[in-house]
Amino acid sequence: MVYEFDLQVSDYIAGSLAATTNARLLRGYVPYALIAALVAWIVAYVVFGESTGIASIVGVVVFGLLLSYLLFIWRSTFTKTLTRYYDTPAKRAVLGPHTLELAEDGLHSQGPLHRSFRAWPAITQAVVTSSHCFFHTAFGLVYVLPMRAVPDRDALMAKLSGKGIAVTQR
Questions:
Q1: Looking at the structure, do residues 111 and 85 belong to the same domain, yes or no?
Q2: Same domain flag for 57 and 123
Q3: Choosing a second label site near 86 at 20 to 30 A (CA), which of 17, 26, 50, 51?
Q4: DSSP class of residue 148?
Q5: Are strands 167-169 and 123-128 parallel, antiparallel or unpaired?
Q6: Predicted model pTM
Q7: How do residues 88-128 score in pLDDT, each as one tens digit?
Q8: Do 73 and 112 sit in the same domain of this protein?
Q9: Is 16 helix (H, G, I), strand (E, B) or coil?
Q10: Are residues 70 and 118 in the same domain?
């Protein structure tokens, strides 16, 4: 099975978004919200002379508001950051025409700056979304296959299953 496609910034963004879970977001943002809550508590208690109860309420409110705000804006901020990252000339060079072949011996990939091969045992899982298929490897690399290049989704899924690849659908 040979898939030819034009790799775009949106494909890398989709891969990064698909790899981001709510648990990861919470683990990342809770420390910032806790620090802000602690600062708010100290300001309320020390600077304004409020009781510990009132200062605690202020801290909890600041924690909740900041955490909610960060969870609300993360997707647009993340997307803008990745777009700027891949918009630099050095990174833009990885975009463009790509070929991904699912052969009997493994996954062959070719793009403007690379030609690579990963044997099937090196493919640890495939994450399939409505718009992409991401092949995760034992080497930490992720190969991106936009579903717009896949004429038969069922044939792709059958090929992956036949090779013993763990497939996660999101």
A1: no
A2: no
A3: 26
A4: G
A5: parallel
A6: 0.76
A7: 888 888 899 999 999 999 999 999 988 999 999 999 999 99
A8: no
A9: helix
A10: no
Task: List, for residues 58-78, the tens digit of each pLDDT value.
Answer: 999 999 999 999 999 999 999
Number of domains, the chain: 2
Q: How many residues does the chain have?
A: 170
Walk across the sheet containing 123-128 and list its strands. Answer: 142-146, 132-137, 123-128, 167-169
What Cα–Cα distance (Å) separates residue 133 from each residue in 83, 113, 142, 149? 20, 21, 10, 10
The CB density around residue 119, as the number of other CB atoms within 10 Å, is 11
Are 125 and 148 contained in the same domain?
A: yes
Q: What string of DSSP letters covers 64-130?
A: HHHHHHHHHHHHHHHHHHHHHHHTSHHHHTT-EEEEEEE-SSEEEEEETTEEEEEEGGGEEEEEE-S
Asked if residue 128 lies in contact with residue 14, where contact means CB atoms within 8 angstroms, the answer is no
Which is it for strands 123-128 and 132-137: parallel, antiparallel or unpaired? Answer: antiparallel
Same domain, 83 and 32: yes
What CATH number did the domain enclosing 129 receive? 2.30.29.30
Picking from 155, 145, 159, 157, the residue whose alpha carbon sits closest to that of residue 6 is 145
Domain extent for 109: 2-7+98-169
Is the domain of 62 the same as that of 129? no
